[in-house]
Amino acid sequence: MRISWIISLPGLLSVVSALAIQKRDADFYSVRTKLHKDMSGKAGDPIEKYFHESVFHPHYDGRFADKQLGYRERRHALSNLIQTYLATFSDIGVETWLMHGTLLGWWWNRKILPWDSDSDVQVSEDSMHFLASYYNMTVFHYKTPRIPEGRDYMLEVNPHYANREQSDKLNVIDARWVDTTSGLFIDITTARYNYTHPAGEGMLSCKDGHEYRDTYIFPLRDTFFEGAPAKIPFAYKEILEAEYHEKSLTLTDFEGHHFDDDKMEWIPVKQDIQKPIEAEKAAQPPPKTDAQKAEEAAKQSEEDKKKVEEAKKLEEAQKATEDAKEKAKQKAVQDAQKNDTPPDEQKAADKRKQNEEKMKRDVKKDSVPAS
Fold it and tell me: What is the CA radius of gyration of the chain?
């Protein structure tokens, strides 16, 4: 079945067509690819894991790429990736919003951070059900001024999306929007209502360990990102501070870049930044996988819970100490009132009483007749 339509993205996108392909687990041999060898890490991954990142970088799909892109080429590809994603989801009526590092890029200059190699977005649970039912394994063909020859983008839904539990650490990503030319992709996670959360109603949880109060997400705010209409969470600043700390919103030197306030751009300060960075990456620890990130997030969540419990215990202990001090203070006041010297009024009363008794004695003495 062929689906054809026009998606409006001002000045960027032209006529678009999409070909819906059969829903299935898309291994190397079942997808359209120009490679002769599968570069995904499927062979080394647990059988329960659905998405397999490439063997050369965790932010590339090894079914469609066998090497990393250069600095400029990657930035252009990521820009096209998010533009086509936002345009498609707007056209099919699926609400989506920017999150994590992509939201941080929006904070600075409404663009992808130049050192990033992927993008992160979220959808609601109902939206993920809709995508899985009607658009899984659909390929969308786009033409842009940067790629006049056109490029295919594939929406792939992880069948494990139906598992709502955070314990499914091998499948924390629910869907991906994949550039079938470069292998770059957008991670799509689902924000699900957690009906048994200790914090009560209104808590949203993702399988990667992130949790939010729904009032932090909704209502969504309208904005622009990479020149395309987009949406962001309502309390975006609080979310960014919680995930990346306040310093990330003001630090102007990071990852070999300096933020130019006049140009509103991150400017590379390394001379070799335009070249592929395989050598530099080789000298550094390999990037963490989604499973590792989820495990760390779970550990951090446990640590946060312990800190909250410890803070409560400390608060209770402090309150008990204050109560004990107050009781001791009150007792000391009572004891002092019992043992203190009578006030001036009492002294005066005692003096008057003594004088009266003396006068009575004198009167009695004067009234006795002389012998």
Answer: 36
Residue 282 has pLDDT above 70, yes or no: no
Is residue 191 within 8 A of residue 178, CB to CB? The reply is no
Q: SS3 for the chain, per residue? A: CEEEEECCCCCCCCEEEEEECCCCCCCHHHCCCCCCCCCECHHHCCCCCCCCEECCCCCEECCCCCCCCCHHHHHHHHHHHHHHHHHHHHHHCCCEEECHHHHHHHHHHCCCCCCCCCEEEEEEHHHHHHHHHHCCCEEEEECCCCCCCCEEEEEEECHHHHCCCCCCHHHCCCEEEEECCCCEEEEEEEEEECCCCCCCCCEEECCCCCEEEHHHHCCCEEEEECCEEEEECCCHHHHHHHHHCHHHHCCCEECCEEEECCCCEEEECCCCCCCCCHHHHHCCCCCCCHHHHHHHHHHHHHHHHHHHHHHHHHHHHHHHHHHHHHHHHHHHHHHHHHHCCCCHHHHHHHHHHHHHHHHHHHHHHHCCCCC
8 A C-beta contact, residue 260 and residue 108: no
The C-alpha atoms of residue 31 and residue 37 are separated, in whole angstroms, by 13
Pairing of strands 119-124, 185-193: parallel
**66-104 confidence digits (pLDDT tens):** 999 999 999 999 999 999 999 999 999 999 999 999 999
Q: Is pLDDT above 70 for 13? A: no
Q: Which residue has the tokens 């990521």?
A: 78
